[in-house]
Amino acid sequence: MPELPQMKNRGRWDIFCTVVDNFGDIGVTWRLARQLVAEHSVDVRLWVDDLRAFERLCPQINVDAAQQWQQGVEVRQWPTDWQPVDAGDVVIAAFACQLPSAFMDAMAAREKPPLWMNLDYLSAEDWVIGCHGLPSVKYKSVQKYFFFPGFQKGTGGLLRERGLLERRRAFQQDPEAQRQFLHGLGIDPAPDAQLISLFAYENAGLASWLDALASDSTPTHLLVPEGRILGDVQRWLGVSELAAGALHVRNGLTVQVLPFVRQDQYDYLLWCCDFNAVRGEDSFVRAQWAGRPLLWHIYRQDEDIHLDKLEAFLALYTKGLSAPASAAISSLWRAWNAGEDMTDQWLATRKHWPELQNHAEAWCLEQALQADLAAALVQFYVNWI
After folding, report:
1. Whole-model pTM?
2. What is the pLDDT confidence band of residue 198, given thresholds at 50, 70 and 90?
3. Per-domain boundaries in the chain
4. Which residues are part of the catalytic machinery?
5. Which one of 63, 111, 175, 305 is least enclosed by Cβ atoms within 10 Å?
């Protein structure tokens, strides 16, 4: 992508977010809003319908405030009783959320209609390239456009802040910085233990994976931020309660529960780990920027259409791997997303560990050749003007 032209201000943007799955939707839109402000001189107004969920990512949020500023972003409570407000130059409906009818009228009332985009869910499916950037429905004088994040040329790319990979490499090459970060979270792993992070939805296959880790000759320190998978971990441990700060050891496996961490801390956590199990969209992308092998728990959709997305990503991600390594990591992902026994798949994956480590870094660098999502959105606006 060519360098964006220098503009003092690239307009005022309205981003709308309906919190569907606790943190995924707000995680993406909050990260995008901050980057637009910090790197592209954009005035951003972020409309959120659930400030309680937002508070977990940004503890400074006042959940009772109708209007506030956080890290340069104007955060607005999405009211049930919508009051008249002027629409911005760009309007983004995140993940196909329905805009308030009064706001749509405000868009149409502008002398120059705004650029209206539907920022869709991330997918590696082939059809995304053909639909990216195309016009969608029209409301009065306002045309809506599809905008798809993606992994291939012809899509909107992935969220990636300026200098992210350089900061990550420096941190991963500094053992003392990693030790201090982990110590700040109360983590003191054994020197020979592999670090694994676990952030996932409920999963019936977890017990088999934990059994395999516990019986492995290589000790594992499993870091579990508070979240939906915690109930399955609790059942496997056979304890009556499991909360942040808990530490349990079973044979070669140490399980430690962490408090829910902010986005920047979560990046460092991923960078510290040898393997990251992630879920949804935001943590999935951040794990890829960590340059370490990963396991994705995709968000379940009706009629199992999420499995098509899983297979589409695997087809891209495993290119360049040897056939045995590709089969091992693909089988692991499929078993995890089906809630099946993971023992054999995990053992097969471990046999190809060096190759998978090298591949994770190579994949990260390949994705970094594309323009990041925020820059792609700004370029789309510049072209539209």
Report:
1. 0.94
2. very high
3. 12-159+370-384, 164-367
4. 25, 281
5. 111
